[in-house]
Amino acid sequence: MDIGIPLFPEQASDLARDVDMLFFFLIAVSMFFVFLIGALLIYFIVKFRRRSNADRPDATRSHAGLEIAWTVIPLILTMIMFVWGAVLFFKQSRPPSDAMEILVVGKQWMWKIQHPTGHTEINELHVPLGQPVKLNMTSEDVIHSFYVPAFRVKMDVLPGRYTTAWFTPNRTGRFHLFCAEYCGTEHSKMVGSVNVLTPVEYERWLAGEVGDTPADTPVEAGRRLFTQLGCATCHHPDAGALGPDLAGVFGSEVTLADGRTVVADEDYLRQSILDPRATLVDGYEPIMPTFRGLVNEQQLMQLISYIKSLGDAGETGEGM
Ligand code: CUA
Fold first, then answer.
1. Tens-digit pLDDT profile for residues 124-136
2. Strands 144-148 and 173-179
């Protein structure tokens, strides 16, 4: 049925169909009960209207069969909804390990994007068809929400924290990107588009059709910052280093001075850079200064990309 008004956005990601199927199931169940209850209501109104001489027996005290039915049937239906929804939620929350990682920083009122190759874009995201893409997102200021209806992807973008979203685009084209969280005066203008290109077109796009000159890759930019900010003075592998060596730290378990053991994920690294004393590693002196205000969110992500590139202490499969 095409009446010119699209009721649904296109299904442009692998997840879109799954999400829609669940949604249609919920609608179907709701419609079934709406019509069932509506029809019974009308039937009883007519049958037991005041002037009818339909039989009006005394109220039934209990009816085991009926009680079991109205308990078990809704239980089965809601469990189907729950399990189905949970399976989808897990799928949506776990990016595949071969996903291409793209950094996204939300800011009043724009989306700043950086590709693994170093290419940056604003309010535009170019991705290759069929390639799982993982977005590592944070905000410079307030809460935003990254929303691509055609992919059925929506994730809050929070200041001071990393969130992720992922999708595998399965058709080429240009799709809306919205900010779906009211974030100030020009919230409604915080829009953009996601352009899904064929892999060949994507390579061509990377090779030259970018307005911005390709910057360093996030890893290279992070390495440069690491040197510029003097991190390497203390964080090196030689004996007597004043800070822990960072090779292999990402994904490893770290014992802190206060006795806690934490996994060194992105949020931990972020906090260690901004608030080193809160996450002091056991055996070291609290001498590291905070870098709050010296690095912006994009630079923080680059530093973390660099630290991640120094080696992984084991595939965590979680985080960004
Ligand atoms: Cu950003 Cu609304």
1. 999 999 999 999 9
2. antiparallel
